[in-house]
Design a protein that fits this description.
The complex is a heterodimer.
Chain A lengths: L5 H7 L1 H22 L11 H27 L6 H20 L12 H5 L15 H25 L4 H20 L11 E2 L3 E2 L2 E2 L3 H27 L1 H11 L1 H6 L4 H27 L1 E2 L6 H14 L5 H20 L1 H18 L3 H4 L1 H18 L1 H10 L1
Antiparallel strand pairs in A: 1-4, 2-3
Helix pairs in contact in A: 2-8, 2-13, 3-8, 3-11, 3-12, 3-13, 4-6, 4-11, 6-11, 8-9, 8-11, 9-11, 12-13, 13-14, 16-17
Chain B lengths: L1 H24 L4 H10 L5 H14 L4 H9 L3 E4 L5 E7 L2 E5 L6 E5 L4 E3 L4 H15 L5 H14 L5 H10 L3 H18 L3 H12 L4 H13 L3 H51 L6 H22 L7 H23 L8 H23 L15 E3 L5 E3 H23 L1 H11 L1 H6 L4 H24 L8 H16 L4 H22 L1 H18 L15
Helix pairs in contact in B: 1-3, 2-3, 3-5, 4-5, 5-6, 6-8, 7-8, 8-9, 9-11, 10-11, 11-15, 11-18, 11-19, 11-20, 12-13, 12-14, 12-18, 12-19, 13-18, 15-16, 15-18, 16-18, 19-20, 20-21
Classes of the chains: A mainly alpha, B mainly alpha.
Amino acid sequence: MTHQPMILRILHDRVAAAVLGILVLAAFLVPVLNLMVPETSPFHVPSYVVTLLGKYLTYALLALSVDLVWGYCGILSLGHGAFFALGGYAMGMYMMRQIGDRGVYGDPTLPDFMVFLDWKELPWYWYGFDNFGFAMLMVMLVPGVLAFVFGWFAFRSRVTGVYLSIITQAMTYALLLAFFRNDMGFGGNNGLTDFKDILGFDIQSDGMRATLFFLSAMAVVGGYLVCRFIVDSRLGRVIIAIRDSESRARFLGYRVEYYRLFVFTVSAVLAGIAGALYVPQVGIINPSEFAPANSIEIVIWVALGGRGTLVGPIIGALVVNYAKTYFTGALPEIWLFMLGGLFILTTLFLPKGIVGTESIVAAFEARRLQLAKWLRPYDYADKEAGQ
Amino acid sequence: MLRKFFTFSWVLPLAIILGLVTATSAPAHADEFSDAVQALNAKSKKQIGQAIDALVATGDERAVPVLEALLNGKLFYRKADKQVFFAEKSGKVYVLTDPVTGKEAGEATRKEAKKIGINNKLRGQLKGVLGAMTLMSPDSAKRMKAADEVFKANSPGMLPMLEKALKREDDADVRDRMTRARAAIVLEYGTDTQARIEAAKVLGDFTDPDVSALLSKVAANADDDAVKAMAQDMQVSVENRLATWAFVGNLFQGVSLGSVLLLAAVGLAITFGVMGVINMAHGEMVMLGAYTTFVVQEIFRNNFPGAFDWSLAVAVPMAFLVTGLVGIAIERGIIRWLYGRPLETLLATWGLSLILQQLIRSIFGPTNQEVGNPSWMSGAIETSTGLVLTYNRIWIIVFSLAVLVMLALIARKTMFGLQMRAVTQNRSMASSMGIRSGWVDALTFGLGSGIAGMAGVALSQIDNVSPNLGQTYIIDSFMVVVFGGVGNLWGTLVGAFSLGIVNKFLEPYAGAVLAKILVLVGIILFIQKRPRGLFALKGRAVES
């Protein structure tokens, strides 16, 4: 399989091909249906739906990043929400600086909350965020560096399993507490909000929303390709070997900690990008994104979709978040029961997730065949006759 | 301003001394007293202040209720003849009582009588004066309170009264307080250098933040260099002793936090240590325990209000039973299918915690429930050094240690404990010896959960009982277990107390939030050094 070009490998994987196909199609179709089809038409997609779908897609990218470390490397990170939030904060800082003197207090450099706290000048770590390129670099660099440093310490001293899960949770909890502090210079409790524009384009405009949706969909596809490239490479094989038997991989001469560190850092960067796409679509970033509960919720998207499949987490994130939006609106009392039940039932009865469970995939395949027969009856008539 | 005050303050002692002289030489004349009372109805606040002093100067016992009434806003004057009365509201009218004769003097409507208004300055003066007047009270507790009032008011006008009270005082404690009040007045307002230095020395023996403040004020403002130097010296020595007491206070706070952490974490240490199970629903077991306490107390309130003090004695075993049974149900229903897959257990129990939270929220509502302290747990040991030891904190420390001892006894001295340890060390060998490891697991999980429930009873006494109660403790308890090392009660004990104490000692310097962050970062770094915690298990069990 490894010898084939990646595009063929993906096409062989029916589920992945279908999901990626839908994503690419949606990336073009949804903006068109939103912007070009008149509002009276039944095919018109309202702007709020575009933003909502865009938000789900950033979650899908986040789930993908967790799957890379959990599904392939066996590291259950309960702190990926922190990387997501850090990417989001970097993006938020750029957009805060873009507000300029249009804030409530009209200060040309200081964001409103700093004027409110009576700060006289910009803290050093806010420098450069008025530059889009620098901010984008930081979106990847800040989560990446944190993951690198954290992973360096953790993997070098062979902290694994539940211990690693617990200290990643402690990390995001510590960051949660830290970002709640006003002295940190990130807006404290309220976080960063009241964004106006990106690169001069109004973030409230339909065009900007459609663009962000397009970018999110493409980011998920791109993220999938990157992860697929990694796990299919020789390096990916070593990573899977480490997941399955750490000691054996070590005794074979592989430096386990370096492989882990690499995957963990890449995953954190992906999560950071997801956060950066998330913030302009929801219009706010505040410390609650660091909450440990959020990070655990990501894991259930991955578990439900099927860990170690890359495409499963995308499905899981979309399904769970759609259900969340629907039920928190319709039956808010029920939602936590459902989410909790999902955790229990998935781990008990669907340990491989939707995509990993063969009967589900087989059912999917049967449906697909049915559809294909219906579309191209002559092709299949020959085949069935041959059998 | 200051000078004005000084000149004014000279009038006071003179007036009082004169008053005392007349008061002691001859029984108070009704006329003199009633004149002084009438003078309270003055135009300016300053005049009222002088009238209060004059009234004190009469030395008449009847002055106390008059001054109290003035302080409490119950002293009125009749508009018709400007005469001053006690007024007690009764329906729409005021019942007037003559303060001089103590006889009722008819009624007055709201229009006919008017309250004598006072301001904060007068209120302070009244409190001090009343304090001084109760210095002679036959009740020693009242005298002590009065001495403290006088010390706080620190007004030179009270000095003669104080001296007199000091002479006839025979209770050592009260004498102490009075000496302090006297020294404070002498130090701040006295003129004799020697006396003031003596006063500073006397004050130097007290360990009290107020004394320290007074000494530093004198050290900064006194016009006499010798006094200044002595006050400075004494202030340093008082400060030093206060620092020691603050240290003790921090230690107590730290131990108290540590005992809370210990209670929350010890159940987790059992399930994690013995079974390798990460129970994310552990916090919810604590929460269930707290709600059990609430329900038990409700039953007591409605049915046996007299025995309310005993409600906790019932709540502790009840909570243990309820959460223990829930724990066994969880183990048999969910966890037993997930052995050998710790990460999945973590997720499933997290799901369970969400369900339990929502369940409690649906049943009891999202708001805090009121759980009462029994009388033997409310109140505090207060010392003059600013150190306050609340009884509920003390009881929780005792309770946590008792739970730990009980657990150690179960583990060491009972058959179940023996089986539990055997399963911890080598599961397959234990089963082949005939131990039903499945039942040991279930009971162990039940024991861990039951202890979490008892922790909930304790936490309900110091924290808000809400569906989120468990969430606030879960990360901290994990930190304790990871820090202390798995499968070791000593590790949990040391871990809990050291985290609690470190946290409380960092707080004054870094603030509560930053202290917590520092502790978390410290633990993350510590795990790098000792991945298995402070007291790690050795041997084959480690690898699994």
